[in-house]
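Researcher: I've got a protein sequence and the SMILES for pyridoxal-5'-phosphate. Could you write out the 3D structure of the bound complex as structure tokens? I'd like something to compare against our soaking experiments later this week.
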Amino acid sequence: MSTSVSANLAQVRKRIELACQAVGRASDTVKLLAVSKTMPAQAVREAYAAGQLAFGENYIQEGVDKIAALADLPLEWHCIGPIQSNKTKLVAENFAWVHSIDRLKIAERLSAQRPAHLTPLQVCLQVNVDGGSNKSGVAPEDLLALAQDVAKLPHLQLRGIMTIPEPAETEAEARAVHQQAKRLFDHLKTAGLTLDTLSMGMTADLEAAVAEGSTCVRVGTAIFGARQ
Ligand SMILES: *Cc1c(COP(=O)(O)O)cnc(C)c1O
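Model: Sure. Here is the predicted complex with pyridoxal-5'-phosphate in place.
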């Protein structure tokens, strides 16, 4: 298994490099977040042995347990899943990043509960860019106001936005939705916010996301294999 995680990681890095080359970007402008949800701590150790430091988890309690089991490693943990109010304290105390903030109440709780001895929680706002009705994420028209409010919270540092578009049928379709996300991101910057993170692209669409300006791809299946 160790050879497969490390071989898979090498392949994903190659995909990112080629996707960057295709549009004239330097490959170090795209961060790789390894999404380890449902995978055992041992799989994370294998990825770490192959040089991977940043990991994403969706389910808070599972993530917190894995963080504890891997506390001997210098890993950077990102919360990328939905956050209920009763889980904000766990998130504030255990993660370095959150990509999935979609309402002010959750951001306020995270800021209030971030322990003073830790650096500010690095956060992105999840945007429902393609209007999928059953999905979380702030609506594009409400994004700027939310971003301005979150940027004021003392123990959070607003870094950018995250999107999880519906699976696209074609490369062109995938690129169109990622392009919309890039426009929203640029709009926030034009409005005066200092942002550097456009979190978009997963196993199926990382090339399209990189082509449209993603700075962080979140990849699970291509690194760890299919989930149960
Ligand atoms: C599961 C998940 C991923 C990774 O998806 P893959 O298709 O396995 O690469 C990325 N982002 C989020 C928010 C996820 O829930």
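Model: Residues 2-22 form the longest helix (21 residues). The longest strand covers residues 156-163.
Researcher: Great, I'll pass this along to the crystallography team.
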